[in-house]
Amino acid sequence: MLIKTDWSILRRTKWNDYAVRFLLGGTITAVAGLIAKEFGPVIGGLFLAFPAVFPATATLSEKREKERKSSKGLSGEKRGRQVAAAEAAGTAMGCIGLIAFAFIFWRELPSWRLSLLFPTAVIVWAVMAATIWFARKRLRPRPKSTSS
Amino acid sequence: MSELLLRFLIGGVVVSAFAVIGDIFKPKSFGGLFGAAPSVALATLALTIAKDGRSYAALEARSMLAEAFGLLLYALVVSRLLMHRQISAFAATVVSMPVWFAAAFVFWEMFLR
Questions:
Q1: On chain B, which terminus has fewer CB atoms closer than 10 Å, C or N?
Q2: Which residues of A touch B35 (CB under 8 A)?
Q3: Is residue B57 part of a domain?
């Protein structure tokens, strides 16, 4: 299987790393609301795709990888960067799904039942993001040393 | 004020949830997909529909559609920087922010104004 899950990461994540992302996520959602109120929905909507927690998440991944390497007596500088770069590349792929998500909301919001619209849009996001990830994996297999 | 607090709480919960899901998955490029999860969007659209109605929320979604391309561009720039420069993840994600803002401005000028 190409994809694995690592549940132990939940225990290893420090409470302040959870707190930072909660704060950033809450703040940008509140600020997006304020901007929409002040400047209208057209400007406000831009902030629905703002990379609010992205710096925090990328930093966290880099830090974890560095710690993992230094526990083995290696310098994790470069490896940490590679992991964060791979994560950012994943985010770029996920954006294709995000574009589809926004398109569905824009076109179908006035007419669809909400109980149908929300799950459909989320499923379309997930399916498109995963499809692009697998397609890229298949078309451009990476050498083992940089595959994670 | 209570509406702002509600946005803060719901946004915090949804964003955290997607961030944790992204954490669990390996390899990290797959986990990174969740960096483009519609987290702020879900929280905002649900609240906006309830308060301002569907056509108002649909306008927000149209802008979001444009700016999702901006996020795509931003993530690509961050990835390139990290691959080719000796720069920390934090520095790369922060110095690339102008890419996002420039994209937002260009899309607004071209399609939304």
A1: N
A2: 51, 53-54, 57-58, 87-88, 90-91, 94
A3: no
* CA-based nearest distance B16→chain A, Å: 5
Q: How far apart are CA A32 and CA A44, in angstroms?
A: 6
Assembly ipTM? 0.91
Q: Are residues B47 and B68 in the same domain?
A: no
Sequence-distant (≥ 6) Cβ neighbours of residue A102 within 8 angstroms: A48, A49, B38, B41, B61, B62, B64, B65, B68
Residue B23 lies in a domain: yes
- Which residue on chain B is closest to A93 by alpha carbon? B33
pLDDT tens-place string over residues A56-84:
888 888 888 888 887 777 777 888 888 89
Q: What is the pTM of this model?
A: 0.89
CA distance B62 to A116: 19
Contacting residues of A for B109, CB less than 8 Å apart: none
Residues B44 and B85 in one domain: no
